[in-house]
Amino acid sequence: IVAIPLIVGIYALPYDMALRNALATVLFVSVALTDWLDGYLARKLNQTSSFGAFLDPVADKFLVCASLLILLEMGRVTAWVALIIIGREIAISALREWMAQIGAARSVAVHMLGKFKTASQLVAIPFLLYDGVLFGAINTRTWGTGLIYIACVLTIWSMAYYLQKAIPEIRAKAR
């Protein structure tokens, strides 16, 4: 969460855009990798906590949403892409909270589809932040745009999946 203002702030620096893009990309990738490592080690060493289980996905969502807003401002993603991804994050977070309140949190537990959605976002975003040619051959805007569209499809698909899992619980509680 602390890194988010740093990523945003990079674009206020008086440097050339290519340098700002590279700095933001390196910071985003570093944050994403250390977040993954932290979670991996916490599980492996049995050092998990309910606060960590709450904060980790919140931090991930903040990072993705802030990055999407930066990319939207720079014209690297469309408003509908940002709206789909950010809207899904809000909707599923609210659904999970509500399902926990009615004692049905297991029905909307994290699924592999959600993990694929997150992975596609976490690869697409640094490509779009970089916005250049990598290793003299990879146009990161082209690849990032393709990956963010894949992320949008997975975003909608995973939201439909979670809603489908929640509907029986919702119907049962409505009776």
Give an account of the 3D structure.
The protein is an all-alpha fold and 175 residues long. The chain has a two-stranded antiparallel sheet with strand order 1-2. The model has no long low-confidence stretch (mean pLDDT 89). The termini are far apart. The chain contains six helices and two strands; from the N terminus they run αααααββα. A hairpin with a 3-residue loop joins β1 and β2. The protein has one domain: Four Helix Bundle (Hemerythrin (Met), subunit A), CATH 1.20.120. The longest helix is centred in the C-terminal third of the chain and has 35 residues, at 140-174.
Which features does this protein show?
mainly alpha; globular; two-stranded antiparallel ribbon; 175 residues; 2 strands; Four Helix Bundle (Hemerythrin (Met), subunit A)
Global morphology: globular
CATH-defined architecture: Up-down Bundle
Approximately what portion of the residues adopt beta-strand conformation? under 5%
What's the rounded overall pLDDT mean?
89
Question: What are the secondary-structure elements, in order, as H or E?
Answer: HHHHHEEH
Q: What distance lies between the first and last C-alpha atoms, to the nearest angstrom?
A: 41 Å
Structural category is: mainly alpha
The unreliable regions are: none
At CATH level 3, the topology is Four Helix Bundle (Hemerythrin (Met), subunit A)
Percent helix: over 70%
* Domain count: 1
Return Rg in Å.
18 Å
The biggest sheet, with number of strands, parallel, antiparallel or mixed sense and barrel status, is: 2 strands, antiparallel
DSSP, total strands: 2
The CATH first-level class comes to: Mainly Alpha
